[in-house]
Design brief:
- With 223 residues, the protein is of the alpha+beta class.
- It has a single domain, classed as NADH Oxidase (3-Layer(aba) Sandwich).
- 40% of the residues lie in helices and 16% in strands.
- It has a 4-stranded antiparallel sheet. It has a two-stranded antiparallel ribbon with strand order 3-4.
- A hairpin with a 5-residue loop joins strand 3 (133-135) and strand 4.
- The longest helix has 22 residues, at 77-98.
- It is globular.
Amino acid sequence: MDEHPFIPLPGYREYPVDEMIRRAVEFQTQLKRRRTVRNFSHRPVPRTVIDGCLHAATTAPSGANLQPWHFVVVSDQETKRRIRQAAEEEEQHFYRHRAPKEWLDALAPLGTDERKPFLEDAPYLIAVFAQKYGHLPDGRKIKHYYPMESVGLATGMLIAALHIAGLATLTHTPSPMKFLNEILGRPKSAERPFLLLVVGYPDKNATVPDISRKPLDEVVTYI
């Protein structure tokens, strides 16, 4: 008997064309409001909101449905402090020694530097890990295919879910990020840090750079 029998398509709904258009435009309008925030409030966020958004993220497609992701949700203040300290050490070295001038020039309009107070200010940090391999129920080791692509899809869905829930986010990728394995107790041989997602309410005085998105005809080609 097939280990994974096929079943009728669950949950799919077809809508009239006008309803499809309305839903597409509504979703676009929601996501156009999303901005990366670097000033976070200390206000607590109910864990049930985070759980709901993580459930949404884990519905993402993945290579062979092996779901090669692990999310570590950090709210402990001391752990956040350790993460900030380690991240700022890497960022200082990056900004002062490793970053090419072209990259620093590209970052300049965004006002970023090695200081990362948001890592302690926000109520949650979600460390996203990509798993190189996993284990079957019988204990056998199995390689994960396309883990980075799969984790990227799940992370994008998580960011969208958190935004629609009413929270702000920041994607933080200090390089290298191996300190996350050590601080969060994740296996270095099996998991690679993908990114650190900062989550919470924006500070009431938060500001963002005045930037725009490329027009659709510049990034899409129909053939």
